[in-house]
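Methods — Computational structure assignment.
A single polypeptide chain was analysed. Its primary sequence is given first, followed by the predicted tertiary structure written as structure tokens.
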Amino acid sequence: MASISPVSNVAAVSLRGVAKHYGALHAVDGVDLDIARGEIFGLIGHNGAGKSTLFKMMLGLVPATAGEIRLGGAQVGGRGFRAARRHLGYLPENVVLYDNLSGIETLRFFARLKGAPAGRCQGVLDRVGLAHAGQRPVREYSKGMRQRLGFAQALLGAPQVLFLDEPTNGLDPQAIRDFYATLRGLQAQGVTVIITSHILAELQERVDRLAILSAGKVQALGSVQALREQTQMPLRFELQLDAADAPAVAQALHQATGTVAEHSATGLRLSCLREHKMAVLAALAPLGARVRDLQMHEPSLEDVFFGFAD
């Protein structure tokens, strides 16, 4: 297999019974996973959960103790993988670059390693916002600039699957926004993105699905909303109203949900089961202007993560 075919129905990445043991330590312990083409997929877990080991096995950098990994149908370590890996991009957690090379020289070096056209290096620098610094030596780059240069080398060769390990380390808020805009553009072209991050708030609205790893196993898998529903965590309502109206509103909410609302500085606070959401809204509707404002809070990805990983 010479490449990862973008028109094939085969999953971009498929794992069956994948394990990696270091003596008694089971860093990865029987992972089954399918990642679709064009999906932005998150992989999260505590330090030591097995994320980086799993990345390295998918890239063919570390052999699996057991199980099978396929990228676009090519078995990792098999006959077709050498050609298929040319269509992969990888940004490691800790980017190591040559300080004496300039940014453009760095990309040309990696382009030669990947067999990618050197003429496209300048365009990739432009894409990550480093066009102004291409001739400067890397030793003069800030941490965020080094991270963007690392991302640029991962983009060389028009990869069809991108592996990004803590990719926003050192990036400022604007650079983070630009980074995820780039990922969405790549996704629109059919590129599959697999990303790990400890900054869960970043991933919450930006991944299509994610897997939560703990002790080398997949503890949960699905979209953020699907995982919220699996955890059965309560919704939180914040109501702004006059203190004189609070007792009547609290009584209406209690009748609708069986839950007792708490008084807050601005009105009432209520936590209830997801299935009571519409009952809460129905109870509030007749109260009209007595409720000045309403905010509903879904469990965050951080809440969901600790619900599964703890």
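Note: The longest helix spans residues 173-188.
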